[in-house]
User: What shape does this take?
Amino acid sequence: MTAEEAKKKIEQLTKEVNFHNDLYYQQSRTQISDFEFDQLLERLVSLEKQFPQFKSPDSPTQRVGGTITKEFASVYHKYPMLSLSNTYSQKELEDFDARVARGLEGDSYEYFCELKFDGVSISLTYENGKLTRGVTRGDGVRGDDVTANIKTIRSIPLIIKGDAIPPVFEVRGEVFLPKDVFLQLNKEREDIGEERYANARNTASGTVKMQDSSEVARRKLDCFVYYLLGDETGLNTHEESIQKLESWKFKVSPTYKKCKNIAMVLEYISHWETRRQDLPLETDGVVIKVNDLEQQQLLGYTAKSPRWAIAYKYKAQNMSTRLNGVTYQVGRTGAVTPVAELEPIFLAGTTVKRASLHNANEIARLDLHLGDYVFVEKGGEIIPKVTGVDHERRSNNLKPVVYITKCPECNTKLVRVEGEAAFYCPNVNGCPPQIKGRIEHFIQRKAMDIDSLGERTIHQLYELGLVKSPADLYDLKRDDILKLEGYKDKSAKNLMDGIEKSKSVPFENVLFAIGIRYVGKTVAEKLARYFKSIDQIAIATVDELLAAPEIGEKIAKSIYDFFQKPENRREIKRLMNAGLQFKTQAKEPEKESDVLGGKSFVISGTFERYERDQLQEIILKNGGRILSGVSGKLDYLLAGDNMGPSKLAKAEKLGVKIISEKDFEKLLKG
Ligand code: IVH
Assistant: This one.
């Protein structure tokens, strides 16, 4: 491909991707499948890598990440990121108002109220309309430069368009994980046997500091902004700056309100007290700001916080209610979760009947007794918590809650794995919720995608003894299905068709579906790309598994253990015989150029800008060949960091050209 052609192609792909992105994010519509979209994007990524000079600064490829940052640079904030003084009391708010009035010496003033978003504060710098830096708060004076990760957040504009854009300005806001995304993430973690994350805020904070920005992109962070700073903004009020931010396409929460006096502020506070539960993110209070920017300057700052603003924090709503019992839920992985069964109470807008007690340690920590009155708290978070026992109301004759020793579903003695908080039911092949859970996991959309099969049908199939493992699904006959309640000719055919269709879902889906602990969809994709077939994975040693990209000790060991079990190997054999995909479909990579003209490569070590499989793909797409070992016939050894010394020595001895990542990029340009 000539440079001219590449330029055109990049422009065209950029347009196409932007079009589909807009359709999806602005209008919630789609015209092409996820797969087709990913292909467009992948092609753009690969062309931009070869011709970086044509990559536009707001290329949609930045949203998918790809940069790995080993250590974030610590950078100074241009304007320190101050905190706000906090209060929980109306009286103190009135005192604040009196101080403002005094400070402004009789001038009239207004307030601007916003909710206090409970996420991770971020400072975004724009220069000449381009996002150049995203920095965490840190200690307020300096924070971590997390720009690559921030660029994956779709609601943060990469480029600002419009008139009179200040040459340099800073925007502050709160990065958060929307409640529904957080719940989904936890559901997925539970599904693969990982521990749940405690709350959305900490998860957002951990995500912002992940090393792999493509993982950040998958997490779907969002951002509300609430502050515009700069020397030449030409603005008079905070309200104007919020409007400006909106016009520049930043996302501002529509919950703000201008208030003429402190009485209206109090109304705003009580208006949102329970309604904030319905917002897409966690909030813990209200921020009250003097609206006029000149007045803000007049009031000034203390060492730690502005005198022109204050945060009113909502008290977490707290009530006590009777603990009627503790029940235990058994998940697909056999993990047992205790649940508090409560006398229903109405708390912060909803009726609370149950609350998770997490694990046995939590029950011991709370020293729960059956019949205790326990404090139940609902803050800005999603799920109510049991925070303690009301000891004054404890009667003498109550018995402590004793954690069960046997599975509530199959009566098998529970076990505890060293280093884990949860108890497990080890009866993997005989415990009903584990069996049904595995089938539910198997058929889900991200796995075999058999949408004609639901939880209720799985339950019936299990109860009738027709299905005890995923492989049994493929032995089902039409007559079996007609035995199910509510199934007639048409619905039976529908179900059979759904099962049949699943035989063509790609290998990475199948690998996820078989339910190896800790192997989520992303890990399954990485494994499928690297090993190419289940046979290769099944014979891999722990060390060989560790060599695959992003596979750590815990996952490698879990995969290895899975394939050591004869019953798992039998199940996979049956699925293979049924015709499921256990190999990656060898797609002929679409040719992009012939600059590598049949030259052969061995890739070894780790690279700064590419994963090994990406390099492989680029070589193949540009007319090169990949060899597995160093020999006299080899043209190039593409050497990264940490490669084995013997390979290097051999290449040197045989006179093979040893090239770096940079040399390779030069080679590609022809
Ligand atoms: S304004 C000079 N507005 O609260 C202070 N902050 O305790 C500018 N926060 O670090 C901050 N929602 O992370 C402001 N609507 C909002 C906010 C907000 C959340 C956070 C922010 C800040 C902390 C201050």
